Amino acid sequence: MKLSEGVEWTAHACLLLSILPPGVGLSAKALAEFHDLAPAYMAKHLQALKRAGIVETSKGPGGGYRLARDAAEVSLLDIVGAIDGNEAMFRCSEIRRKGPCISKQASFRAPCHIASAFGRADNAWRAELAATTIAQIAKRTAENSSETNRDDLVQWLSMKLGEPFTLSVRS
Amino acid sequence: MKLSEGVEWTAHACLLLSILPPGVGLSAKALAEFHDLAPAYMAKHLQALKRAGIVETSKGPGGGYRLARDAAEVSLLDIVGAIDGNEAMFRCSEIRRKGPCISKQASFRAPCHIASAFGRADNAWRAELAATTIAQIAKRTAENSSETNRDDLVQWLSMKLGEPFTLSVRS
DNA sequence: GTACCCCTACTCGGATAGCGAGTGTCCGAGTCGGAATGG
DNA sequence: CCATTCCGACTCGGACACTCGCTATCCGAGTAGGGGTAC
After folding, report:
1. What is the rounded average pLDDT of the residues B75-101?
2. A167 to chain B, minimum CA–CA distance in Å?
3. Please, which pLDDT band fits residue B171 given cuts at 50, 70 and 90?
4. Could you count the other beta carbons within 10 Å of the beta carbon of residue B64?
5. Which end of chain A has less neighbouring CB within 10 Å, N or C?
6. What is the CA B67 to C1' C6 distance in angstroms?
7. Is A75 contained in some domain?
8. Which chain B residue has the Cα nearest residue A137?
9. Residue B170 included in any domain
10. What angle do CA A136, A18, A81 make, to 5 degrees?
11. What is residue B107's predicted lDDT score, i.e. its pLDDT?
């Protein structure tokens, strides 16, 4: 019952990608370096994001990963689904139908109430994640960041992109 | 991000224990047999329930497992905590503090908004499970069970307990 | 007949193997950009 | 000076080992109850 480590990695990666100008991307190596993570492993997770249609890729020099759609259209649930899959945490194997005291005349038209309860909990969890987008997180993070941190970020991105970079608020 | 199989096993086991008269228990072997499960593995999970204080045990002939408190005081969250632990699914490792563009003057007084969002989702999930008790599930299951199923259950329990057993609604 | 004792069967409880998903890494396929070259 | 070609470096993408936690099992510790025996 533990979320994959890659969820945290890719969520932060998407957060970084969301502040780039449209059409501009960053390589897996750069995205890993930014948070001091293993480059190869980060690349593996980013491939999962691409398979899910969250990011697009370009090969060759100057290529890399960029968001495939607006940051307001990328939810945390999308990222979780891309990395860990969309299966429910609780998977009912209908053990109530097994056992010695189940006769052939037994009927189970009603759903298993244990599975139903876990299903409701799962829906509540997913609803909360679906309601949180990368754009929202980026906005809140920007509002709480210090001047120093912003300057360092701008300088680092300018170096990595090979062109002057300025922070701009995107919807 | 998958719940342990033992959660389903022990939830159904608690459901069965909840309809027994006070002070009466069932052995791990019988609880496993009832749903056609591996006895040794079921015993392992039941030990986890005991460590969590959900069930009590008695050794020797006639002994076994019984609920340590009223079924209305046992929630699905208690069971999940006993089997899978109480740690949050998302564990923030604060990677935002790592990396080359974090200077010594950087300040992170505000919490990580990604971790906050996952924390809210976790709380929603746990709240739903905490609000569902074994007693509620037993009540709903009883209301939806057929006459045949109830008779088979009564007969099986009478045999296992070695004394006549009758179904009674408990709060 | 009664009280005591022992013994057996039954139960829990922790210690011990096996396996699969997640973790971590590497090398090949493809592509863009620029340098070199010839006109 | 300009167009073309070729080469190199950079990037993604999938294929390949490794580790840890869940799965699964077994055997020893402890106990209640019943049968046997002595009084």
Report:
1. 96
2. 15
3. very low
4. 24
5. C
6. 34
7. yes
8. B113
9. no
10. 75
11. 79
